[in-house]
Design a protein that fits this description.
about 100 residues; mainly alpha
Length: about 100
C-alpha cells in the first residue's frame, strides 16, 4: 500500500495509486483520506491518556514538564505508524470492493 517504509520519515506518507498485487485503486474519491485524520486523532488521544496515566503511576504524580515529555515522545515516535494504520482502517471500513 505504501511505497516506502515507515522509518523513512520524508516519504512515509507516499502511497501507490493502485495496489501492486490486485490493482485496487486506493483513493476512492478526491479527499478520501481526510477522514483518516479523525482516526489518527483517536489514536493520539489513546496514546496520550495511556502514557499520561503511566507517567502518573511510575513517577508518582510528577511535574507537568515530565508529563509533557512522557506524552510527547511516544506521540512523536508513533505518528508515522498512526498515520499509516488510520489510512488502512479507513480503506477497510469505507473502501469499495
Amino acid at each position: 500500500m505504501f511505497k516506502y517504509p515507515a522509518t523513512d520519515l520524508r516519504r512515509a506518507t507516499q502511497m501507490h495509486q493502485d495496489c501492486p498485487h490486485c490493482g485496487f485503486h486506493f483513493e476512492i474519491e478526491p479527499g478520501f483520506f481526510w477522514g483518516a485524520m479523525y482516526i489518527s486523532y483517536a489514536f493520539s488521544v489513546a496514546v496520550s491518556v495511556t502514557f499520561g496515566v503511566l507517567a502518573y503511576l511510575v513517577f508518582d504524580d510528577p511535574a507537568v514538564w515530565l508529563y509533557c515529555l512522557c506524552i510527547f515522545i511516544p506521540l512523536l515516535l508513533l505518528s508515522p505508524l498512526s498515520m499509516r494504520f488510520s489510512r488502512v482502517l479507513m480503506l477497510y471500513w469505507f473502501g469499495d470492493e
